[in-house]
Design brief:
Blueprint lengths: L4 E6 L2 E6 L20 E5 L3 E6 L4 E5 L5 E4 L8 E5 L4 E4 L9 E4 L3 E7 L3 E8 L7 E10 L5 E11 L2 E2 L20 E5 L2 E5 L2 E11 L4 E10 L15 H7 L2 E3 L6 H13 L3 E2 L6 E2 L4 H6 L3 E2 L2 H7 L7 H12 L11 E2 L5 E2 L8 H16 L8 E2 L10 E2 H16 L18 H4 L4 H7 L1 E2 H20 L3 H19 L10 E2 L5 E2 L4 E2 L3 H6 L5 H14 L11 E2 L9 E2 H14 L1 H11 L1 H7 L13 E2 L12 E2 L4 E2 L9 H13 L3 E2 L5 E2 L5 E3 L3 E3 L5 E12 L5 E10 L6
Parallel strand pairs: 37-40
Antiparallel strand pairs: 1-2, 2-9, 3-4, 4-5, 5-6, 6-14, 7-8, 7-13, 9-10, 10-11, 11-12, 12-18, 13-17, 15-16, 15-18, 19-38, 20-21, 22-23, 23-24, 25-26, 27-28, 28-29, 30-31, 32-33, 34-35, 36-37, 38-39, 39-40, 40-41
Helix pairs in contact: 2-17, 4-6, 4-17, 5-6, 6-7, 6-10, 10-11, 14-15, 14-17, 15-17
Length: 715
């Protein structure tokens, strides 16, 4: 049971009701002042609403830059009040001695408060789609036995600013709030506009005994206003229910609640990109909201993978957007800065192109939408290059990976100054510059040995037979190299010159699942490897496998969503019971059970948790020497939502194949508007092209626009 509240069913939607009473004690943000507030990020495809445990909010927009429309520091804003002409009778937000009832829904914040004289319920909703505003509905009830004449006010304190690139270290002074976009607060017959400062509107309330009145407001960017409507429509919960996927699993009952919740918060992190086109879906959390950058390029590609099966148009939009980070030669920069400019000053990772190829292949297999790859797609504007078809983007990124990243003296993919693990070179125990010049990543090789044959299946369907053959051959070459790194217990992590080895006497989790997935591990080796992982990395670990053995008490030894999801996927092929157990440990429920007093892990989380042996188990990492801390903003990292979703689909056998088809299994239930998989292995896929499905019994089903298999009927 969480120390903060409980999950409820709110008109068929998962929601979290905070417990009433005094707020919890302040928590340590390491590089920022302690605060007793906690928050959750809710959104649509444009804005993010940062709703907090005081019933206040912040508002974030990433359309042109990394911008707080109103920064939730030192507290949130957005408050409704009822006045009688002399004093405030009731306020919606938490105040001294006043504890409202607060519910966090998938896209809304609801606050209820009351006194002997009146009751007020305030709901702030982020509308479906890309509207750059929130809707506010305030319902006021007169509890007196006589009629009343009151005033209802709605106010938002605008603290607008664009973050600096790499805002690191402790904040020593209040940020400057100057200028910015014009924001607009609208109510019945009243409007307030401005780029900074307090926006407030009022209207009279005349209520008879027991009478209730509902009032609607709207707050957001002024450019979105098309004239005031006295009663703006409030989101229909049925629209949201239809958009979110459903899940049911005897092996993990919490999936019924957490899968639609994760889907809502994942899509709520998207933003229509006014610079590069498409939608960005970055990591958020401390990276964006505190440190002012969008990185790495691999991350939005990872986050979009489960969207292929729930909101494929958004997945394609993220793919196109991230391809637009690239140079015409196919290089993806590590990050975009606060103004969406490409940056390579932090890292030059060697793995990023693989994520592009993977997302593209998964999208094509699940939708049949091959026409999307003929559509022109841009490069980053700094390159002043002509657009090329999306298919050509993929080919150039494959060429960059093969020809420029290339391989080292042992035939493995070069590591450069980072692979998936930004700190791999610092932990390798070999001179850093030597590894940059000559190091090789077994992790990259193992991942590429799975990705490249799957990309080859897409390239073949698109008619690019030479690229398909080359990708397939290169993937097989790397698979053989990875197979040679088995040391009798696990696969080595990396290689240096002169026979130097990383991971001979220490177990690094990152590459192990990929060795199973790509076929480098024999069946005997795979089973032995999973047993070793269970013994060394999962022992006494309520949140799942650690990243490293021998144990490390810092983030390098913690639980990383992106890696544990691949472990679940690989284990599902060999030991489904272990795979389901790992998914349960990844769940929000598991974190709440192990650490009921921590907010991170209750509704959202960081990219990684610290292990049980750390000084702050269940919290997240800090790099104090660098002035960087995930603990400063330990929620709203999209890996905490995308990876449980993707891992659940992999548990059901949903994945792209080497021949461009979509494999499906069963064992539990999943249903979105596009994909249904049932426990008995039956199901249905809807797309907008030629669909090709391979069921778990090996039978093939093909169709145009829709295909069903097994004993699927209706639904």
């Amino acid at each position: 049971m969480s120390g903060y509240g409980r999950w409820i069913d709110d008109s068929g939607l998962p929601a979290f009701a905070l417990r009433t009473g005094p707020p919890p004690p302040a928590w340590n943000r390491v590089i920022d002042p302690p605060t007793r507030r906690r928050w959750v990020h809710l959104g649509n495809r444009r804005l993010t609403l940062v709703a907090d445990t005081d019933g206040r909010c912040g508002l974030w927009d990433e359309h042109k830059d990394l911008r707080w429309l109103t920064e939730p520091e030192p507290q949130g804003t957005g408050v409704s009040q009822v006045h009688d002409g002399e004093s405030v009778l009731l306020t919606s937000a938490r105040a001294e001695g006043h504890d409202p009832r607060i519910v966090f829904g998938p896209t809304y914040l609801r606050v209820g408060t009351e006194s002997a004289d009146l009751a007020m319920q305030r709901t702030v909703t982020v509308p479906e789609g890309e509207d750059p505003f929130v809707r506010i509905q305030v319902v006021v009830t007169n509890r007196r036995a006589e009629s009343v004449c009151w005033t209802l006010s709605e106010e938002w304190d605008v603290r607008q600013r664009v973050l600096d690139y790499l805002e690191i270290g402790a904040r020593t002074q209040r940020p400057a709030y100057e200028g910015g976009e014009t924001l607009r607060l609208e109510g019945p017959g009243a409007v307030a506009e401005g780029a900074q400062g307090l926006l407030r509107v009022e209207l009279p309330l005349e209520l008879g005994p027991g009478q209730r009145e509902s009032v609607h407001f709207r707050f957001g960017l002024a450019v979105a206003s098309g004239g005031h409507t006295s009663t703006p429509p409030i989101a229909d919960p049925e629209l949201l229910r239809r958009r979110l996927p459903e899940a049911a699993a005897d092996q993990a009952p919490q999936a019924a609640r957490e899968i639609p919740w994760h889907a809502a918060l994942l899509t709520g992190g998207a933003c229509a990109d006014g610079v590069l086109g498409g939608h960005t879906l970055d990591q958020s959390s401390a990276y964006s909201f505190r440190h002012g950058f969008n990185g790495a390029a691999r991350d939005p590609l990872q986050h979009a993978l489960p969207l292929v099966h729930t909101e494929p148009d958004l997945a394609l939009s993220v793919l196109r957007n991230t391809c637009a980070w690239a140079s015409p030669e196919g290089e993806l920069p590590y990050a975009l800065d606060n103004m969406k400019q490409p940056r390579t000053d932090l890292f030059q990772p060697s793995d990023q192109n693989l994520w592009t190829l993977w997302l593209a292949a998964e999208y094509a297999a699940a939708t049949g939408d091959l026409a999307a790859f003929a559509q022109p797609a841009p490069f980053h504007p700094v390159h002043k290059a002509e657009q090329v078809p999306l298919q050509e983007h993929l080919r150039r990124q494959f060429r960059w990976f093969k020809d420029v990243v290339g391989t080292g003296e042992h035939g493995h993919v070069r590591i450069l100054n980072a692979d998936w693990n930004d700190l791999a070179l610092d932990e390798a125990g070999i001179d850093r510059q030597t590894m940059i010049d000559h190091g090789e990543s077994v992790l990259n090789s193992a991942m590429a040995a799975w990705v490249l044959p799957v990309y080859a299946g897409l390239a073949q369907r698109l008619g690019d037979l030479p690229t398909a053959a080359e990708a397939r051959s290169y993937g097989e070459e790397l698979r053989v190299r990875v197979a040679g790194e088995w040391n009798g217990r696990w696969f080595r992590r990396a290689l240096g010159p002169g026979g130097a080895q990383v991971g001979e006497d220490s177990l690094w989790l990152e590459g192990q699942p990929w060795a199973i997935l790509c076929g480098a591990a024999t069946d005997v080796q795979a089973r032995q490897l999973l047993s070793t992982i269970d013994e060394l990395l999962r022992k006494d670990a309520p949140l799942g496998a650690r990243l490293h053995w021998p144990p490390k008490a810092d983030g390098m030894g913690g639980h990383w969503y992106a890696i544990n999801a691949t472990l679940i996927w690989a284990a599902a092929r060999i030991d489904p019971a272990l795979a389901w157990d790992e998914w349960r440990r990844m769940s929000l429920s598991a974190h709440t059970e192990a650490y009921p007093g921590l907010w991170e892990g209750t509704l959202s989380g960081p990219d990684a948790y610290l292990p049980p042996e750390s000084e702050r188990p269940g919290q997240t990492w800090v790099l104090p020497d660098l002035g960087v801390a995930m603990q400063a903003w330990p929620v709203a990292n999209q890996h905490s939502h995308a990876q449980p979703l993707l891992a659940y689909l992999r548990l059901l056998g949903v994945e792209p194949t080497r021949d461009g088809r979509l494999a499906v299994g069963g064992g539990a239930h999943f249903s979105s508007r596009f994909l249904t998989v049932r426990p008995d292995g039956s199901g249905r896929l809807r797309g907008n092209g030629t669909l090709a499905v391979t069921a778990r019994d090996g039978r093939r089903y093909d169709g145009q626009g829709e295909v069903a298999w097994g004993e699927f009927t209706g639904g």
